[in-house]
Amino acid sequence: MADKVVFDKPKVELHVHLDGAIRVQTILDVAKRRGIELPAGTVEDMTNIIALKEPVTLTEFLKKFPLYIHVVAGDREAIKRMAYEFVEDKAKEGVIYVEVRYSPHLLANTGVEKIQWNQKEGDVSPDDVVRLVNEGLREGERAFKTKARSILCCMRHMPSWSMGVVELCERYRDEGVVGIDLAGDESLSCEAFPEHRKAYEEAKRLGIHRTVHAGEVGPPHMVREAVEVLKAERIGHGYRTLEDPALYKELLAKKMHFEVCPISSKLTGACNPDFTKHPVKTLMRDKANYSLNTDDPLILNSTLNCEYSVAHDEMGFTEEEFKRLNICAAQSCFLPDKEKEELVNSLRTAYGMIQSSGF
Prior knowledge:
By secondary structure, the protein is an alpha/beta fold. 45% of the residues lie in helices and 13% in strands. Strands 1-2-3-4-5-6-7-8 form an 8-stranded parallel sheet. The longest helix has 19 residues. It is globular. Its EC number is 3.5.4.4. It is found in: Cell membrane; Cytoplasmic vesicle lumen. Belongs to the metallo-dependent hydrolases superfamily. Adenosine and AMP deaminases family. InterPro entries: A/AMP_deam_AS, A_deaminase_dom, Ado/ade_deaminase, Metal_Hydrolase.
């Protein structure tokens, strides 16, 4: 997609997956170093294989990850490199604060059910993955002046991982990890897998911030489950909330934050492919609390600038709305209060708005 800039002011991004934001050149470089054969040998050809061009189902979308994730999983150098490069890429997009999420278990190669990447190269545990990502993000932050923090993902289909994810959030909360997420197939509810509910109860008890993928392709009651059972502070996607007017009104009143990803929602079949009918237009009209995000820019072949271009050109977003939604993102981020206030005020200053002592 064309990387046109329609909003050249500082931005905040809250919903982007590290394993869906790797540079294709990095995949090629690591594959060559490790002797892993890929279906193509150039950036252009691999991009054509990985990236979506037309809307598909979420299931088809998820089939893109196995095309390349085995190249970097379990490789210390690759994990740290992709975190560092991620910050550089976000800095180029004008992002001054980003929360990037990933599953430590899916990037590891040991002690993980059904994950047996490249065992011969030595053990890389989920704990190792978090340390390596933290190091890459810190080095990127120093080099590119974009603040980067991370959110660790539980996976709906692997409930046995969830309590371990909470433990990692607690262990690394002072080293860059700011929250927990639940991602994956929304047909797998917490009624069927109570381990997720227990993990989120423990996260709340420990004061760990919580977001949940819900209402992307699943029904509105999955959003209600995220809010009422898992005590989510933010909702990843949440488009189907609008199908339940009472729930939508309730979450509007609570100023629940929706992490919206327009291009993703089109290409995964989560929303009507006609952007003029996208649910985010309703959020804009109602002055809801939401943000614009890239989700998986590698697979979507997009950038944050692409998201803003779509919002501007096809949905009628104005510069004032871009400013407002970025303030909303900053106010809803998972930073400690003092850092959050500094972030909000830095945006207000950059936007020529009157600073507030509170946030």
